[in-house]
Amino acid sequence: MAKKVAVIGAGVSGLTSIKCCLDEDLEPTCFERSNDIGGLWKYTETAEDGMTRVYWSLVTNVCKEMSCYSDFPFREDYPNFMIHSKFLQYLQEFAEHFNLLKYIQFKTTVCSVTKRPDFSTTGQWEVVTETEGKQQRAVFDAVMVCTGKFLSPCLPLESFPGIQKFKGKVLHSQEYRIPEGFRGKRVLVIGLGNSGGDIAVELSRTTSQVFLSTRTGAWVVSRSSPGGYPFNMMLTRRYLNLIEQVVPSCILRRINEKVFNKRFNHENYGLGITKGKGPKFIVNDELPACILCGIIKMKAGVKEFTETSAIFEDGTVEENIDGVIFTTGYVFSFPFLEEPLKSLCTKKMFLYKQVFPSNLERTTMAFIGLIGLKGSILSGTELQARWATRVFKGLCKIPPSQKLMAEITKREELIKSDCCSWTDQMLPS
What we know:
Blueprint: E1 4-8, H1 12-23, E2 27-31, H2 84-97, E3 104-105, E4 108-115, H3 119-122, E5 125-131, E6 134-140, E7 142-145, E8 152-153, E9 169-172, E10 186-190, H4 194-203, E11 209-213, E12 219-221, H5 231-235, H6 238-246, H7 249-260, E13 281-283, H8 287-293, E14 296-299, E15 302-305, E16 310-312, E17 317-318, E18 323-326, E19 330-331, H9 341-347, E20 351-352, E21 356-357, E22 365-367, H10 377-393, H11 401-417
Helix pairs in contact: 1-10
């Protein structure tokens, strides 16, 4: 009898997980709380459902040649970089081609995932779901958590004194969809990641002024390379990966400075990397030009707010701020998990190879897509799902829990003593 696998979420990670289960003759059942596949790639006009969605102007920052499932390439008439609707269309074509939709239960929320009393011997889980107010229970031999890392927004208001008395509009980028509500306003965007850069550029077309606040700076790269080919295609090379692994970080930093400042001097644009901070890259074709034109003004980190203004760490003040958008990322959130796994996952996510929880005596739970990659999330999640399903089937083995926890303790000590900087890369950020 085929092992039953619960797949939580029908986004990029969930779809490939369903297919990998079928490839290994496992029996998947996918639970998706919305009414369609695609996860955050399914655009909605409002954020009332509380789910993270793409904003209207979003364009992929990894080219199609480097970002597809291994056995389902993009059609040739697709552009190198896609707007979100085109990317969603690809996911729909993938699901239809491999007949995945019949394994998905839509409008179904996972309420809890708990170990069965005999978990130590069977590795089984009891999954409680709710569909249109009706709860159901089912037993599964394994669980694949495919909710990703964009589930719960990180809104660190306690780090911004005075924000409670600020009279303007305050929101997280999770709630942002279109710029129309900010027309003619003075808007402060906090955080310089891909979302922060994109939102600031889009707002600059309709607002009277955009301020973009960053504590760290970032290297800004274009989608196209000097030769005209997609930049990430030229950057993804085995020899470059080897250089990153063997060359000391101080030398790498100098190389980065020389390469990425060749297009424009980041320091002059207010984008220079803060001393002591690791390298940070964002993909944005228009941000430098917007700064050059003055429609976006770069600012230091925010020190505090007043009712109508923002005071920055360099002592400057910007008056008459109408709105603040926090692009401050997301935090791990798995409300359906039981303790102590829930606390472990939300505070210190120790995953073996960033897939399997290290504290489980049976390797029957896998987290797919909880990773940060330079390249395509599709190829990364597919490799994770392939490995996880083979572990579930018994074709691959991983070290016992006791050994993994001992390695984690040792790694924690290394991190605390700051003796080995590369250990940070072993933990999701």
